[in-house]
Write a structure and sequence with these properties.
Strand order of the largest sheet: 7-8-9-3-10-11
Strand content: 35-45%
Distance between the termini: 16 Å
Order of helices and strands: EEEHEEEEHHHEHEHEEHHEEEEEEEEHEE
Number of strands: 21
Shape: globular
Largest sheet: 6 strands, mixed
Number of helices: 9
Length: 366
């Protein structure tokens, strides 16, 4: 699936001027509130009439010169921030309602099993928790047999526990269905965990777009992501779960020993490492409590507006970011091409930063 979007619209003083290409997989639209994210997905869904719109999915024109396909003919599944289930219908009836609109009708039993909602079928939406309701909403969207799935802040209304409950189901949805997803969020942890491609929006404009690992590891994205949330994403493989509660994960530059890893041995995962949690040393450090030390080469140093600086590290071909002070840059003589050591505390990479990243190709759509 390839999605092509070019939109222009003016809302009073706010001007939207957005264009991007979304390759197969999960494309995240990321930006602060008011950036224009929801307007974009509403336009793709056919729910918003804009001044100018060109939207194509796999060559099928949704919007273009003289063309505006009605929303019900686009075969787009939409999962909102609130589940929007029919309150007078049971879960089973909500799911079956969606099947009326599916071109082929996705396999009901498979969707129910994948989302773990079999025990909920006889219940009414008013008796469901937030996480349960969102899983049912996902099932309803999938059973409409969408060619594209739109998700607008689907976890924003959930507390931390409910969010942790539903994220594994989103991992599985991504891995097993093969349905392309346009995912709207301003939560960096969700995007780092789920997305393959990232589009950064600010004030109605595309600031940056590209593969997730490139965008997250680019210091130019730090002001929009936020200096406290900025950090790179590394690919890793779980090598062992040790008796002391730590797990050994292998990245391209070496092994890391981390806490809270739930994935089984052999699994490929993503690690989100915050820039503020990376220390730099000119020589291999000794006598430290931190045991995660990776050799690195400085690729770039970018000064911030204040006393800080972002250091881009090449760790065996992958990017890692370190946030240091400009004073440290001067005192240590940091410069491009310099060999250094990156130090990462085991406790700094929490469970929400470690996510499954299935490497196998998605199974055919049901």
């Amino acid at each position: 699936m390839s999605l092509s979007v070019a939109l222009r619209h003016r809302f009073g003083a706010f001007a939207l001027d957005v264009a991007f290409e979304a390759p197969p997989g999960v494309t995240a639209l990321f930006g602060r509130s008011g950036a224009g994210k929801t307007t974009v997905v509403n336009a793709v869904a056919g729910l918003a009439r804009l001044d100018q719109a060109e939207v194509t999915v796999d060559g099928a024109v949704f919007d273009g010169p003289g063309v505006r396909l009605p929303a019900h003919k686009r075969r787009v599944g939409y999962v909102f921030q609130d589940a929007r289930l029919f309150p007078h219908l049971s879960v089973a009836q909500n799911l079956d309602y969606a099947r009326r609109f599916g071109a082929r009708g996705a396999a009901r039993a498979r969707v129910i099993e994948m989302l773990g909602i079999g025990a909920l079928l006889d219940r009414r939406p008013g008796t469901l928790s937030g996480g349960e309701a969102q899983r049912v909403a996902l099932g309803r969207a999938l059973l409409s047999d969408p060619r594209l799935l739109l998700m607008d802040e689907p976890l924003a209304a959930l507390d931390t526990a409910r969010k942790a409950e539903i994220l594994p189901y989103l991992d599985r949805l991504k891995a097993e269905t093969g349905v392309p997803i346009l995912y709207v969020s301003h939560a960096v942890d969700e995007v780092a965990r789920l997305a393959d491609h990232m589009v950064l929006l600010s004030d109605g404009r595309v600031v940056q777009a590209g593969p997730l690992f490139d965008v997250m590891g680019d210091p130019a994205a730090m002001p929009l992501i936020g200096v406290r949330e900025a950090g790179a994403v590394l690919r890793a493989q779980v090598m062992a779960h040790d008796a002391d509660g730590l797990s050994t994960l292998r990245v391209a530059a070496g092994d890391l020993h981390l806490m809270g890893v739930q994935a089984p041995v052999g699994a490929e995962v993503r690690l989100r490492v915050l820039a503020q949690d990376v220390l730099l040393a000119l020589e291999h450090p000794t006598g430290l409590s931190a045991q995660n030390i990776l050799p690195a080469t400085i690729a770039e140093i970018r000064a911030g507006d204040g006393p800080g600086a972002a250091v881009v590290l090449d760790v065996a071909g992958e990017r890692l970011l370190a946030r240091v002070t400009a004073r440290a840059v001067a005192a240590m003589g940091l410069r491009g091409g310099l060999r250094v050591f990156a130090v990462i505390k085991a406790t700094s990479v929490g469970q929400t930063a470690i996510s499954a990243a299935p490497s196998a190709a998605p199974e055919p759509r049901p």
